[in-house]
Amino acid sequence: MTDLQLRGNTNQENYQTLKGQAVRKFMGFYVYILASCRNGTLYVGMTDDLARRIWEHQIGAVPGFTRKYDVKMLVWFERYESRESAFQRERQLKKWSRIWKLDLIEKTNPGWRDLTEDVGP
Question: Domain 3-119 carries which CATH code?
Answer without folding.
Answer: 3.40.1440.10
